[in-house]
UniProtKB/TrEMBL annotation:
It comes from the Eukaryota. Pfam families: Exostosin_GT47. Residues 1-19 form the signal peptide. This is Exostosin GT47 domain-containing protein. Belongs to the glycosyltransferase 47 family. Keywords: Signal. The keyword Ion transport does not apply. Residues 260-549 form the Exostosin GT47 domain.
Length: 624
């Protein structure tokens, strides 16, 4: 396969000396270099890279610095763009003109070992699919590998080609309807069959039905048991992107809910089924808000589930907010909602204990206290990532908070492919050259800054970026494409409040191995009964000056940093939602976020049994 063809599949190519790597389809050197058509260029394919000689070129500054949205013009000036500089990329290196052989350019200024890994995978792609017959298998291989290589570098990657996806979907639907066709194709090209299902199963779950997608997942799961991806490296596609599919579809073994004796009744009401679809898209969309999907499906496959309301300790109402927010929100300026047709008091067993034994999951933000549903569920158990939401300066009234005596705090969800890449970028503390890092949205963000201006909490982000973004010891600014590299090389990761008190940055720090420094006064941390947070993090007041914070970070001894780094690695399993299924969910001492949830629910259930508020909402004399 020609290297140029890879662009059509969204693959982020390492740069080579072959100018033809830029040219494919309607894009050629005449159109792009001679006529300078602006349609030729994007973040990856630039005029500076494509319109050069085959040997060397001169560039303003060091060309290896100008990726990820940064340029000489933006950085090498008196007031550089936020985020230009960190411990590895500074003006003394980047602003000095350098003659560079184009073969020296790496991928997205990432670690050299990742660039080499990228090259090895690319070399395999130049081969045919190893499957006899149709070009179909070559297309599957190229498309899937493009996504997989991007994931290796901690990036989502560009969407696959629509034409190819339609062809693969058509073939996959035939497999679901005619299993004999699947078996024939899987015999001819087992790696291709696995990769093809991975590419389209989420679309089929959304566009056709969960049953059809489950049939495909079952076929794939059976084949994967005989043909694991470990033996087919060049074919690897979205294996980490879809590793959750067999679990969510109930294709893997049941578990014992980490040994819990709780009995939980799971509501399955037809009138609210739309709040649970499409499961695969909901499980990864707005990924940090997707825990509600995984918690529900985990409980559905566990021994703690009961179909008898009489023996139930707790009642669980499932809803996937990452998806239903889109269809249920009314028009206007709002950031969260619950379907207006939903009334918790209409749930069949809600009045048994005034809603005290009912569980509602909010894996992104809580409903505001003034919302009617919040008022009616005020005694219920809220399983939530959020600890405090302040009143907005403008926009919807978000005021709500965690009630320690009845609610359960959980971590935000991080997809397995991101976890894998974060851990790969995690360096030993001795190799970390950046003191502190923060890259995220703030009031100055072009697209979402208006939202952060509403929140009084978010001003700390602006102070962090203003101070640490201009300090060569650190790296701070807006989101950057090499965020994983910077975090994996940082001793500390700054965790400021944003729109609300919680942020997914806190849990990412455990996988990056950087000590989280929390600047969110109202943030509460989960699983305090099993994690000693004083040994894995630092929390300081948000009114601390950035100069004082800088001195505090410099004063932490290296031996302390090494111990905290190890403690972070030991505790990260409590935040990994891919753990705790099947055999990993058998014992009470096994580590997973689901075990943390069950421990919290057990305490709430015990408190309910001894509560003085045991009467139903209404009662009358017996008729006997």
């Amino acid at each position: 396969m020609q290297a140029a063809a890879l662009c059509a599949f969204g693959l982020l190519l390492p740069w080579t000396a072959r100018g033809q790597s830029c040219w494919h389809g309607e894009f050629d050197e005449q159109r792009c270099c001679v006529k300078n058509d602006p349609a030729c260029w994007d973040d990856l394919y630039t005029r500076g890279k494509c319109c050069m000689g085959n040997e060397t070129r001169r560039s303003r500054g060091d060309p290896t610095c100008w990726m990820d949205g940064y340029s000489y013009e933006e950085c090498c000036k008196e007031n550089p763009k936020d985020g230009c500089w960190d411990a590895n990329f500074g003006p003394e290196r980047c602003c000095v003109d350098k003659e560079l052989n184009v073969t020296d350019l790496t991928v997205n200024v990432l670690e050299i070992d990742f660039a080499e890994a990228f090259g090895r995978i690319l070399a395999h792609l130049n081969d045919d699919s190893d499957c006899e017959g149709e070009e179909f298998w070559n297309d599957v291989k190229k498309t899937g590998a493009a996504l997989n290589v991007s994931h290796t570098f901690g990036q989502v990657g560009r969407p696959p080609n629509d034409v190819i996806l339609k062809l693969v979907s058509k073939r996959a639907l035939r497999w679901a309807q005619e299993p004999q066709t699947w078996h024939a194709d899987a015999a001819q090209c087992p790696e291709g069959a696995l990769a093809a299902v991975d590419l389209v199963i989420s679309d089929i779950d959304r566009d056709v039905s969960e049953d059809t997608a489950r049939t495909l997942a079952g076929l794939r799961h059976a084949l994967a048991q005989r043909r694991p991806f470990a033996s087919m490296q060049p074919w690897r596609t979205q294996d980490l992107m879809v590793e959750h599919v067999p679990r969510l579809y109930g294709l893997e073994g049941h578990h014992r809910c980490h040994g819990s004796s709780l009995r939980i009744y799971m509501y399955q009401l037809p009138q609210y089924a739309y709040m649970l679809k499409p499961v695969l898209r909901c499980s990864q969309k707005m990924s940090q808000c997707s825990a509600s999907v995984h918690l529900h499906r985990w409980l559905m496959s566990g021994s703690c589930r009961t179909e008898s309301p009489e023996e139930a300790d707790l009642f669980y109402f499932p809803a996937y907010e990452a998806c239903y927010n889109e269809t249920a929100c009314s028009s206007g300026d709002t950031e969260r909602c619950f379907p207006q047709s939903f009334d918790p008091e209409e749930l069949p067993f809600f009045h048994r204990r005034g809603g005290q034994d009912h569980i509602f999951v909010f894996a992104c933000n809580l409903l505001p206290f003034m919302d009617l549903i919040s008022i009616r569920t005020r005694n219920s158990i809220m399983v939530t990532v959020e600890s405090f939401q302040a009143v907005n300066v403008a926009g919807p009234n978000m005021l709500a908070w965690l009630v320690y005596s009845k609610d359960v705090l959980i971590p935000g969800y991080i997809p397995a492919w991101r976890v894998s890449s974060m851990v790969a970028f995690c360096r030993p503390m001795i190799e970390r050259t950046i003191l502190a890092t923060f890259h995220g949205h703030s009031r100055s963000s072009e697209k979402v800054g208006h939202m952060y201006k509403r929140s009084l909490m978010s001003e700390v982000r602006d102070r962090i970026i203003s101070y640490f973004g201009q300090n060569s010891c650190c790296s701070a600014g807006p989101p950057v494409r090499d965020y994983f590299r910077r975090s994996g090389l940082s001793r500390f990761c700054l965790i400021p409040a944003g729109l609300t008190a919680w942020t997914i940055h806190l849990y990412e720090a455990f996988f990056f191995g950087c000590v989280p420094v929390i600047l969110s006064d109202d943030l509460t941390v989960p699983f305090q009964d099993v994690i000693d947070w004083t040994k894995v993090s630092i929390k300081v007041p948000t009114n601390l000056t950035m100069e004082e914070l800088h001195q505090k970070l410099l004063s932490v001894r290296f031996g302390t940093l090494k111990r905290m780094h190890q403690a972070l690695k030991d505790a990260r399993c409590w935040f990994d939602y891919s753990r705790g299924w099947g055999i990993e969910g058998q014992h009470e001492n096994d580590c997973s976020p689901y075990n943390g949830l069950m421990r919290g629910l057990a305490k709430r259930a015990a408190a309910i049994k001894t509560s003085a508020h045991a009467l139903p909402k209404y009662w009358e004399p017996s008729t006997g």
